[in-house]
């Protein structure tokens, strides 16, 4: 982005919109997504920077360990498991299958890890 400041500024604006102006994700959900992307992309910096934020957002050390290892069962809520599954699919495959796209917390969707 150093050589293309316009691109960097656009990415910053997009990141800010996603992080701070969206009402669809709670702070907890957002940190689940960030830590999931950090795991999928093997980003030590992102993981380090966001584990502390995740704790402030209410994630326990056990949940953070589960996210570090990609274990949906380590999250105690269906919405968190859905955020993890959706984010992991998008980060690793750049796509969602039909089940992933239509999954909702509490629907029993095994694909999204939402069985209650």
Series of secondary-structure elements, N-terminal to C-terminal? HHHHHH
**Structural class assignment:** mainly alpha
* Gyration radius from CA atoms, angstroms: 15 Å
Helical segment count: 6
Overall number of strands: 0
Task: Note the overall shape.
Answer: globular
In which range does the helix fraction lie?
55-70%
Strand content of the residues, in percent?
Answer: under 5%
Unreliable runs: 108-116
Largest β-sheet summary: none
The rounded distance between the terminal residues' Cα atoms is 44 Å
Averaged pLDDT: 80
Compact overview of the structure:
By secondary structure, this protein is mainly alpha-helical. It has helices at residues 5-21, 27-40, 44-56, 61-69, 78-93, 98-102. Helix 2 runs antiparallel to helix 3 (44-56), helix 2 runs parallel beside helix 4 and helix 2 (27-40) runs parallel beside helix 5 (78-93).
SSE topology sketch:
Layout: H1 5-21, H2 27-40, H3 44-56, H4 61-69, H5 78-93, H6 98-102
Helix pairs in contact: 2-3, 2-4, 2-5
Can you characterise this structure?
By secondary structure, this protein is mainly alpha-helical. The protein has a domain at 26-102. Helix content is 64%, strand content 0%. It contains six helices and no strands. It has helices at 5-21, 27-40, 44-56, 61-69, 78-93, 98-102. Helix 2 (27-40) packs antiparallel against helix 3, helix 2 runs parallel beside helix 4 and helix 2 (27-40) runs parallel beside helix 5 (78-93). The longest helix has 17 residues, at 5-21. The protein is globular, with a radius of gyration of 15 Å. The N and C termini lie far apart (44 Å). The relative contact order is 0.11.
């Amino acid at each position: 982005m150093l050589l293309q400041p316009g691109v960097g500024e656009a990415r910053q604006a997009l990141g800010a919109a996603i992080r701070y102006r969206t009402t669809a994700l709670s702070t907890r959900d957002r940190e689940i997504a960030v830590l999931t992307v950090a795991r999928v992309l093997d980003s030590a910096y992102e993981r380090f920077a966001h584990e502390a934020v995740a704790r402030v957002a209410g994630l326990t050390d056990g949940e953070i360990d589960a996210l570090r290892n990609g274990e949906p069962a380590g999250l105690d809520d269906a919405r968190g498991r859905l955020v993890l599954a959706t984010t992991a699919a998008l980060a690793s495959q750049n796509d969602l299958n039909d089940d992933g796209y239509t999954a909702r917390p509490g629907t029993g969707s095994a694909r999204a890890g939402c069985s209650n």
